[in-house]
Amino acid sequence: MPKHGKKYIAAAAKVDRNQYYTPQDAINLAKETAFTKFDSTVEIHMRMGVDPRHADQQVRGVVVMPAGTGKQVRILAFAEGDGARLATEAGADFVGSDDMIKKIQDGWLDFDLVLATPQVMGKVGRLGKVLGPRGLMPSPKTGSIVQPEDLPRVIREARQGRVEFRVDKTSNIHMPVGKASFTYEQLLENLTAIMDAIVRAKPAAAKGTYVRRATLTTTMGPGIRMDANLASALKPTA
């Protein structure tokens, strides 16, 4: 079993493993315990009280981070005609249809977000086995199947910090909150938006405690347990 380095041990010593911190205190601790030379990503990991084996207990949605994600997102838009023109004008990194499908089938995957207009989904469906397991397949549930006239808005949101979330097969949700270099206010604003979106996405079939555990951490840093009830109660002020 690998041993932790001195920097991790020093950071972990600042975190009480038996305490459930308020979201505000957890954010301050995350910033304090980020020790990498690069700008660490602050992440939230949630254990959900749903059974993802049942279709009526899926938790899935989209949140636009008010303070952004600190990450440059490479956007691929599957579109033709006016849709392709609008996507290009809006600043999508890659735009196309058959040509992009062929490129992906040949092994190209240098993109972070995939959008598609309904008109080309019949073709894009062929990529299900490639894009699906990577969480990149366009879906109406995540708002990534977009009418041509809505492409500029969705692309703009993606640049601002549009993040999809989905419960995995082990009933967990993992999401970026921002960067350690973000201010406390920016991280709290993003965390609030995330928790509000997660709570609003609660399936009607979900019973009992919805968010069972919530942990904040940074890249390579120690986990900071949050009070899940306080985190779930976060609401945007505006």
How is the secondary structure organized here?
Layout: H1 6-12, H2 23-33, E1 41-48, E2 60-64, E3 75-78, H3 82-90, E4 94-96, H4 98-105, E5 113-116, H5 121-124, H6 128-131, H7 151-160, E6 162-166, E7 172-179, H8 184-200, E8 211-218, E9 224-226, H9 228-232
Parallel strand pairs: 3-4, 3-5
Antiparallel strand pairs: 1-7, 1-8, 2-6, 8-9
Helix pairs in contact: 2-8, 3-7
Keywords:
238 residues, Ribulose 1,5 Bisphosphate Carboxylase/Oxygenase, 2 domains, 4-stranded antiparallel β-sheet, 9 helices, globular
Considering DSSP H and I runs of 4 or more, what fraction of the residues is helical? 25-40%
Are there runs of 5+ residues with pLDDT below 50, and where? none
Mean pLDDT: 94
Count of domain modules:
2
The CATH class of the largest domain? Alpha Beta
Side by side, the strands of the main sheet go 7-1-8-9
Q: Give the H and E element order.
A: HHEEEHEHEHHHEEHEEH
Report the principal-axis shape. globular
Which CATH architecture of the largest domain?
2-Layer Sandwich
Calculate Rg over CA atoms: 19 Å
What would the CATH topology of the largest domain be?
Answer: Ribulose 1,5 Bisphosphate Carboxylase/Oxygenase
**Relative strand content:** 15-25%
Assembly state of the chains shown: single chain
